[in-house]
Design a protein that fits this description.
Elements: E1 15-19, H1 36-50, E2 54-58, H2 75-85, E3 89-92, H3 97-105, E4 112-115, H4 122-125, H5 129-136, E5 141-144, E6 166-168, H6 170-184, E7 190-194, H7 199-210, E8 215-218, H8 222-229, H9 244-257, E9 260-262, E10 266-270, E11 279-283, E12 291-295, H10 297-308, E13 312-316, H11 329-341, E14 348-351, H12 354-362, E15 371-372, H13 376-383, H14 389-392
Parallel strand pairs: 1-2, 1-5, 2-4, 3-4, 5-6, 7-8, 7-13, 8-9, 13-14, 14-15
Antiparallel strand pairs: 10-11, 10-12
Helix pairs in contact: 1-2, 7-9, 8-9, 10-11
Length: 397
């Protein structure tokens, strides 16, 4: 690691401000419906508690558009965290100002508090200096443990680091360690699986990976734009007109670099992207009036055969409309194939955040992967080779 971590600082009796990513889903009763992100921050919180720090957690939740909105209160998150930690978590009804100052000031060694939603203030997303200084005034140290927000230059990810010694938490360090391992120190063969809708969203990822991988497997709606660039018929499938010329250029570049660029050779197709639609399987060319919704059985077997020979695999983006059961087979089969790879020695499997991570968690396969990222946008930007502002703000070692 090139930056200091929370293990490099002496925290006993000190107030430690920790940026976590508690942007979790709430159900209709306002209760936390998926606590995966909370659980992943426990190692950092528990270590600080054990070391007798006074822990002040801060996070955003949803998009309250810079206004106080009870619908986006972090209070239910404090309640869930309290159960997970098996100790009280003081919920503080503001994140700056006299209430926050007084209640964080009253914390004892080993106690934990959670501030109210940072995004109740527009200054958070604007990385406002005064707001950053107000947050920083609550503590002695700043620990960044929200990889999912590290690509945002906000007050709580970057601004506070101007006023406090800034170090990384356990989760942030783990995320970076795994992404660096696959991007800089991969054991070959190195295979990348990319899905998602638009070519333009993944151009930089593809370009960055092209100089690192042996094989790129392309699925999801993005595949149809590449297939059209190879002069195949795609019926009524999603087509990214904006990314069409780029798709042609990428296919040429893959040829020049000698990277295997594998597109689906057959498809699951439907008349409409709905549960009650008529469904069929077709070869590489999709007939008019039909939409490609998943990779077909031959493609599944081909993708699996390539993945099974790999020593490093990174996967970002489902290969079909995973959220609808009839169109989820490709994503499911690939996930199970990757899960079995862990039994093979030294195979590193890293799952990019967002929908792919959700799919793996839903299938109960998270523990069978080397690493499942908590950051959708952040993992995408890291795969592009972009420096993340929330990491750049940390104190160098």
């Amino acid at each position: 690691m090139t930056y200091k971590t929370f293990e490099d600082i002496s925290v006993q009796g000190k107030k430690v401000l920790v940026r976590v990513d508690f942007n979790v889903p709430l159900d209709s009763k306002g209760q936390v419906s998926d606590d995966t992100r909370i659980i992943k921050t426990l190692p950092t919180i528990q270590s600080l508690v054990k070391r007798k720090a006074r822990v002040i957690l801060m996070s955003h939740l949803g998009r309250p558009k810079g206004k106080k909105d009870p619908k986006y209160s972090l209070k239910p998150v404090a309640e869930r965290l309290s159960k997970l930690l098996k100790q009280p978590v003081h919920f503080i009804s503001d994140c700056i100002g006299p209430v926050a100052k007084k209640e964080t000031g009253a914390l004892k060694n080993g106690e934990v508090a959670l501030l109210e939603n940072l995004r109740f203030y527009p200054e958070e997303e604007k990385n406002n200096d005064e707001f950053s200084a107000s947050l920083a005034s609550l503590a002695d140290f700043f620990v960044s443990d929200a990889f999912g927000a590290a690509h945002r230059a906000h007050a709580s990810t970057v601004g506070v680091a101007k006023y406090l010694p800034a170090v990384g938490g356990a989760l942030l360090s783990k995320e970076i360690e795994y992404f660096d391992r696959v991007l800089e120190h991969s054991t070959r063969p190195f295979v990348a699986i990319l899905g998602g809708a638009k070519v333009v969203d993944k151009i930089k990822v593809i370009e960055n990976l092209m100089s690192k991988v042996d094989c790129l497997l392309i699925g999801g709606a993005m595949a149809y734009t590449f297939l059209k660039a190879r002069r195949h018929h795609i019926g009524n499938s999603m087509f990214d007109a904006e990314g069409f010329d780029t798709a042609k250029r990428i296919l040429e570049a893959a040829k020049v670099k000698g990277v295997q660029f594998i597109l689906p050779s057959d498809h699951v197709i439907a008349e409409t992207v709905t549960l009650d639609s008529k469904v069929d399987v077709c070869e590489v060319d999709i007939p008019d009036g039909w939409i490609g919704v998943d990779i077909g059985p031959k493609t599944i077997e081909r993708f699996k055969a390539i993945v099974e020979k790999a020593n490093t695999v990174i996967w970002n983006g489902p290969v079909g409309v995973f959220e609808l059961e009839p169109f989820s087979k490709g994503t499911r089969e690939l996930a199970h194939c990757l899960a079995k790879l862990k039994e093979k020695n030294n195979v590193t499997t890293v799952i990019g955040g967002g929908e792919t991570a959700a799919a793996v968690v839903q299938l109960g396969l998270e523990s069978s992967m080397s690493h499942v990222s908590t950051g959708g946008g952040a993992s995408l930007e890291y795969l592009e080779g972009k420096p993340l502002p929330g990491i750049q703000a940390l104190t160098p070692k």
